[in-house]
Design brief:
The protein is of the alpha/beta class and about 220 residues long. The chain has one domain (about 1-215): 3-Layer(aba) Sandwich (Rossmann fold), CATH 3.40.50. The protein contains six helices and eight strands, in the order βββαβααβαββαβα. An eight-stranded mixed sheet has the order 1-2-4-3-5-6-7-8, sandwiched between helices. α5 (about 165-175) links the parallel β7 and β8. The longest helix is centred in the C-terminal third of the chain and has 16 residues, at about 200-215. The radius of gyration is 16 Å and the shape is globular.
Length: about 220
């Protein structure tokens, strides 16, 4: 496993990111974290470990700079700025395509959590040739608005059974997605999937979705 920390250009700022590339990498997954979270999120780190064990490279980046995070901690103004977050995710996608050890980002997927899921969906719509599949964990796809109708990539929505409000929002959003879409409800799980065994289910579902829907050519597998 080749692991490195990098700074990824995103417009006027650089984003701190951690990259892990298995020796026999088959595809790449970039993470879009949720409200108030960072690349050090233990939940995303756990999912990344499971994906890496399946020969999927991972890119975990802070979508906000340290200064932006400080402002957001006080005001919350950035965490729901889907336009800003989506632009940062697009920057991750574009950067991955330039990296030789990521195979030019052939077979690239996006894993989004909470508000990061909306950003991932918007980025997928903006990079239809580069992004091959999307997975949302406890996401807010409704925040992507009308862009949902432009998302043609296979999309998996994972929601906790006890996360009732978010579950309802996902059920409403799923028919709006233009491509293949599936909703998986993890019984007994709340929004952060803190109950024993629930995060493991999320990771396994995400792994299987990406392995099934990403190919080395970058084209979604149907």
């Amino acid at each position: 496993m080749n692991r490195r920390s990098v700074r990824i250009p995103a417009g006027a700022v650089d984003l701190d990111a951690d990259v892990a590339v298995p020796e026999d990498v088959r595809a790449v997954v970039a993470f879009a974290h949720g409200s108030g979270s960072t690349r050090h999120s233990p939940r995303n780190r756990y999912v990344a470990d499971v994906l890496e064990a399946a020969d999927l490279a991972t890119v975990l980046a802070d979508l906000l700079t340290s200064d932006e995070e400080a402002v957001d901690a006080r005001t919350g103004e950035h965490r729901f700025d889907i336009e800003l977050l989506a632009a940062r995710v697009v920057a991750l996608v574009d950067w991955a395509a330039t990296q030789p050890d990521l195979g030019g980002a052939r077979g690239l997927g996006l894993f989004g959590a909470s508000t990061g899921a909306a950003a991932a969906l918007v980025a997928a719509a903006r990079r239809p040739q580069a992004v091959g599949a999307v997975v949302s964990r406890g996401g807010r796809p409704d925040l992507a608005g009308d862009t949902l109708g432009e998302v043609r990539q296979p999309t998996l929505l994972i929601v906790g059974g006890r996360d009732e409000v978010v579950l309802d929002l996902n059920r409403q959003a799923m028919p709006q997605l233009a491509g293949e879409a599936r909703l998986e409800v993890v019984p007994g799980a709340t929004h952060l999937f803190e109950q024993p065994g629930t995060l493991e289910q999320v990771a396994a579902l995400a792994r299987d979705w990406f392995v099934s829907h990403l190919s080395p050519s970058g084209v979604a597998v149907t």
